[in-house]
């Protein structure tokens, strides 16, 4: 069965949320230079990666993240003895993740014109914090979901988990068309800034930010759609061979320790073409590309491989520039920006593909079709 052609399973609504604290790249770099004044090689490395990473602004849930002098407990300081422990960071995560998740979820439900009581399944996604009872239990109460809603937490699966959740939701609705799935992704990446001058720590500090996103997935209702939507097609997940050491995310004493290899864009370039061929077979290439901007190099390699125009990668680059990499939450920021732009331009029906990448290395690929509101209503009347 070709879901792309024979199904109305769609993203019915999207919502996003950001913390209150916004900072410029220059502010973080200035603080790092101050903290690393005795490590000139680290300063040169930081200047280089901050200049090249494609990020201008980001958001954080921690107002003291980049305080100058001895005010910052997260970024490297000489002789600092007050570095936040993992337990303290998880306490902040618990406090700050809930309101962001609620805000994004409410926006998605409003966009889909659905009431919380209509949701049958709740998928919560995060790799930057954990607590129990978790975000899913709190959302049930706060959003007045049914206490019998099927809760599915996807935890500690990295940047690819947002798209994985969307693919899981599509499968659930394919099994029973009455299901309405709410996905909520919350990532507070900046809580894991490390008190280290190591290149890996500085690399992570250069482009990760905080944010939340949500969406509702179900069968299209033409009476409720007035903004266009994304109809979901087939997709798959793949664990790329011999890449397990290229992206590592482990729990440490001072937050989660991240290692990102500089080989990741090259490895994706080596394997991604074959995965796209497997997904599309003899079909023409899509026009719309929702690429998870895990870093500037990732977007660059996808653009080069598939000979995409600047417009086709604009949404991914724009989200990276304005918000940084928000881990699993990012793909819905990209799709929201794409949908709003297509609706504003009164664009016609267009085929698309969404791509996301995470530890493993894992690649998620999914077809979708943008349907203008008039097309949806005419096609179902």
UniProtKB/TrEMBL annotation:
Q: Which residues form the Chalcone/stilbene synthase C-terminal domain?
A: 238-366
GO terms for MF: acyltransferase activity, transferring groups other than amino-acyl groups
Q: Kindly indicate whether the keyword Transport belongs to this entry.
A: no
Task: Give the UniProt keywords, A-Z.
Answer: Transferase
The UniProt record lists the Chalcone/stilbene synthase N-terminal domain at 7-218
Family annotation (CDD domains): CHS_like
Write out the GO biological process terms: polyketide biosynthetic process
This protein's superkingdom? Bacteria
Active site per the UniProt annotation: 159
User: Which InterPro entries would you find in this protein's record?
Assistant: Chalcone/stilbene_synt_C (IPR012328), Chalcone/stilbene_synt_N (IPR001099), Polyketide_synthase_type-III (IPR011141), Thiolase-like (IPR016039)
* Keyword hit for Lipid metabolism: no
The signal peptide stretch is none
Homology family? Belongs to the thiolase-like superfamily. Chalcone/stilbene synthases family.
Protein name listed in UniProt: Stilbene synthase
Organism name: Paenibacillus crassostreae
């Amino acid at each position: 069965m070709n879901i792309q052609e024979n199904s109305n399973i769609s993203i019915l609504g999207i919502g996003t949320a950001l913390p209150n604290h916004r900072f410029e790249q220059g502010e973080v770099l200035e603080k790092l230079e101050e903290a690393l004044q005795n490590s000139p090689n680290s300063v040169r490395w930081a200047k280089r990666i901050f200049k090249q990473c494609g990020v201008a602004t980001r958001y954080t849930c921690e107002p003291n993240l980049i305080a100058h002098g001895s005010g910052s407990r997260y970024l490297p300081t000489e002789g600092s003895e007050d570095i936040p422990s993992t337990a303290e960071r998880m306490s902040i995560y618990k406090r700050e993740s809930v309101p962001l998740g609620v805000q994004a979820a409410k926006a998605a439900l409003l966009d889909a014109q659905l009431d919380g009581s209509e949701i049958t399944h709740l998928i919560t996604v995060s790799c930057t914090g954990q607590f129990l009872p978790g975000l899913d239990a709190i959302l049930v109460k706060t959003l007045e979901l049914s206490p019998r809603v099927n809760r599915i937490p996807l935890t500690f699966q990295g940047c690819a988990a947002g798209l994985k959740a969307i693919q899981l939701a599509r499968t659930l609705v394919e099994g029973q068309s009455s299901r309405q799935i709410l996905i909520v992704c919350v990532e507070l990446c900046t809580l894991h800034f490390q008190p280290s001058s190591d290149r890996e720590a500085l690399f992570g500090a250069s482009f990760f930010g905080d944010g939340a996103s949500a969406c509702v997935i179900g069968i299209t209702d033409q009476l409720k759609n007035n903004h266009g939507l994304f109809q979901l097609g087939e997709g798959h997940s793949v664990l790329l061979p011999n890449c397990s050491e290229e992206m590592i995310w482990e729990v440490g004493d001072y937050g989660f320790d991240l290692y990102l290899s500089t080989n990741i864009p090259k490895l994706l370039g080596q394997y991604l073409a074959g995965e796209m061929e497997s997904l599309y077979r003899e079909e023409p290439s899509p026009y719309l590309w929702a690429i998870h901007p895990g870093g500037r190099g990732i977007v660059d390699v996808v653009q080069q491989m598939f000979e995409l125009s600047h417009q086709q990668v604009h949404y991914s680059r724009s989200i990276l520039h304005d918000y940084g990499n928000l881990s699993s939450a990012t793909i819905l920021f990209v799709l929201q920006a794409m949908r709003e732009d297509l609706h504003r331009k009164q664009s016609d029906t267009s085929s698309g593909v969404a791509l996301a990448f995470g530890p493993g290395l894992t690649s998620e690929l999914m077809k979708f079709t943008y349907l203008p509101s008039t097309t949806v209503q005419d096609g179902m009347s």
